[in-house]
Write a structure and sequence with these properties.
Blueprint: E1 5-9, H1 16-26, E2 30-32, E3 35-37, E4 51-53, H2 56-64, E5 68-74, E6 77-82, H3 83-91, E7 95-99, H4 102-111, E8 116-121, H5 125-135, H6 140-153, E9 162-165, H7 169-182, H8 190-196
Parallel strand pairs: 1-7, 1-8, 2-7, 3-4, 8-9
Antiparallel strand pairs: 3-6, 5-6
Helix pairs in contact: 1-7, 5-6
Bound molecules: adenosine-5'-diphosphate and guanosine-5'-monophosphate.
Guanosine-5'-monophosphate binds near residues 9, 39, 101 and 103.
Length: about 200
């Protein structure tokens, strides 16, 4: 088992989904952890692809049934990571990618200490605002809330293994690919390797 896990966190609009698409083109064994959320789908989002979109009642029922590895209340909506699919993806030696907030990052690291994490952000708050506006997926009030939340999230930056300041997309893409490729050199099975070293 390689135990390859990469947690992506950072302000909404910093480029996590965009950079995830870069990883998807490069690695054919990716498993993206599809979270469950009570927020409404954005234009173009599909149930079961970006998120499992559920009602608050359904979400609270899943909490009760202990189905989540972790869950958090972010931007006035619930978001949670289900346990079972992650355990299955681990057994299949997939490269597991999470897109979670800073609370989710802490919980996942607690569960899986071998997981590596990247905090993705923009060079300034003004650039974040411009990106959120150009995405055209949120109204002005929602954008304001997301920026407010971003100031808080920036306080957690030191907890991460890597930081990508997503200014130029080509440079940021190179960085995330380098980090993802480096995982196979960190979480290796020393026991299995040593067995192969006793053949002569
Ligand atoms: P997140 O998933 O973190 O919320 P997105 O990946 O949706 O962020 O990116 C927010 C917006 O910024 C999108 O419209 C995306 O196309 C754009 N974007 C991402 N990276 C860059 C970049 N380096 N330069 C310019 N625009 C970018
Ligand atoms: P968005 O609404 O922009 O898709 O996501 C808002 C925030 O919720 C982002 O910071 C995203 O990383 C976070 N998020 C998405 N899914 C989960 C999850 O399952 N758990 C936690 N803790 N945060 C999540």
């Amino acid at each position: 088992m390689h135990k390859n896990m990469l947690i992506l966190s950072g302000p909404s609009g910093s480029g996590k989904s965009t950079l995830y698409q870069i990883l998807k083109q490069e690695f054919d064994n990716l498993y993206f952890s599809i979270s469950t959320t009570t927020r409404a789908p954005r234009k173009g989002e599909i149930h079961g692809r970006e998120y499992f979109f559920v009602t608050e009642k359904e979400f609270l029922q899943d909490i009760k049934e202990n189905k989540f590895l972790e869950w958090a209340h972010v931007h006035q909506n619930y978001y949670g990571t289900s346990k079972i699919p992650i355990e299955n993806a681990l057994k299949e030696d997939r490269l597991i990618i999470f897109d979670v907030d800073v609370q989710g990052h802490r919980s996942i690291k607690k569960h899986y200490p071998f997981a590596k994490s990247i905090f993705i952000t923009t060079p300034t708050d003004m650039i974040l605002k411009q990106r959120l506006e150009s995405r055209q997926s949120d109204d002005a009030l929602t954008i304001q809330k997301r920026i407010q939340n971003a100031y808080e999230e920036m306080q957690y930056i030191h907890e991460f293994d890597f930081v990508i300041i997503n200014d130029d997309i080509n440079q940021a893409s190179k960085s995330i690919l380098a980090i993802a490729h480096s995982l196979s050199c960190t979480n290796f099975d020393a026991l299995a390797l040593n067995k192969k070293w006793k053949t002569i």
